[in-house]
Amino acid sequence: MSLFGNKTIYFIDSENVNDNWIDTIPQIKKTDEIKVFYTEKSTNVSYEKFSRIAEGEANLNWIKCFTGQNALDFQLVTDLGYCVAKGAKDTFVIISNDKGYDAVVNYWVVKGINISRVGVEMESPKKAKKKIAAKAKAVKKVALKSKKKETTNQETKKQETKEQEKQKQEVKKQEAKKQDAKEAKTKEASNNPKTLWKKKPSNEMGYVEAIGRCVSVKKLGDYHMVLTNLFGQEVGTKYYHMIKDDKELKDKVSKTYITNDEQRLDYLVRIFLAFNDKGFKDLQKILNVIKDKKCDSLNNFYKLLTESLKEEKGRMYYNILKGIYGVLKGE
């Protein structure tokens, strides 16, 4: 359109074509000029479209028109006539879908002016409505997808938290089980004479404390009997009064008392065998004799020991244990 003119001037009827005129204008030259006639009824130009024009080299002018019936049209035509008068060799383009401008175009064409009207493809209200609805649907779809993803993430996180909590509970359960087993093993070991008796006491006080494990200091008669039979009357009585008169020491000894009857019996026999420098090879046979129902008197105790361990050995063990026979039998 500007092949033989100095420049191209575009006259935009923005009330008629809104901002769709931007898509109609071909490549802009630096010498070209764009006149946008607008009123309050004109649609605002979108930033995306306007930026394409603003970045070009054309001279862009915004002309605010007075309002009234066909007011913008009259002002556009007036400005057009003024420009034709100034530069008849220029190219003039009216961008509007209003065919009323065709009379003006014909008027100038017959006078040799290079002028034309260019229509703009507009969306019908129905098409625009569909477009808006489609956009809204797309937005809603994205929102629903996002919400679904968020819900899925929350459920996944909740499931993961549940699994983690389950694993923690399982770990706690296993740890508690191990702890119970450990405590049971410790308790069993603490009540097992074989475990307690790692080696014989190195001094008399060690034997005194060992006796406190199998003879209750609350039964002072039994306690005195065992002490005097182990150490003799004088030394045994000395240790007896030491424990009896010292509350702190008495409490300390009482805390080591073995609660199981059989284990106390086992431990007490060990004490007397160890004090007399005898090993524990015959320990079980001695315990079997003490537990035998026939062992109901000192005579039968002697008889059963000699029968089980032969005369000489049976007599030896009898002499070591006869003084505490009543304690051994729990009498």
Q: Which keywords apply here?
A:
331 residues, alpha/beta, 5-stranded parallel β-sheet, 61% helix, 15 helices, single chain, 5 strands
Written description of the protein model:
- This protein is an alpha/beta fold.
- It is 61% helix and 8% strand.
- It contains 15 helices and five strands.
- It has helices at residues 14-17, 47-54, 71-86, 101-109, 125-190, 193-196, 204-214, 220-231, 233-245, 247-254, 261-275, 283-291, 298-309, 311-321, 325-328; strands at residues 8-13, 33-38, 59-64, 91-95, 114-118.
- The longest helix has 66 residues, at 125-190.
- The N and C termini lie far apart (135 Å).
- The mean pLDDT is 85.
Helix and strand topology:
Layout: E1 8-13, H1 14-17, E2 33-38, H2 47-54, E3 59-64, H3 71-86, E4 91-95, H4 101-109, E5 114-118, H5 125-190, H6 193-196, H7 204-214, H8 220-231, H9 233-245, H10 247-254, H11 261-275, H12 283-291, H13 298-309, H14 311-321, H15 325-328
Parallel strand pairs: 1-2, 1-4, 2-3, 4-5
Helix pairs in contact: 7-8, 7-11, 8-9, 9-10, 12-13, 13-14
Oligomeric state as shown: single chain
Strand order of the largest sheet: 3-2-1-4-5
**What percent of residues adopt helix (DSSP H or I)?**
55-70%
Measured by DSSP, the beta-strand proportion falls in 5-15%
| Anisotropy-based shape | rod-shaped
Instruction: Write the H/E string, N to C.
Output: EHEHEHEHEHHHHHHHHHHH
Mean pLDDT: 85
**How many helices does DSSP assign?**
15
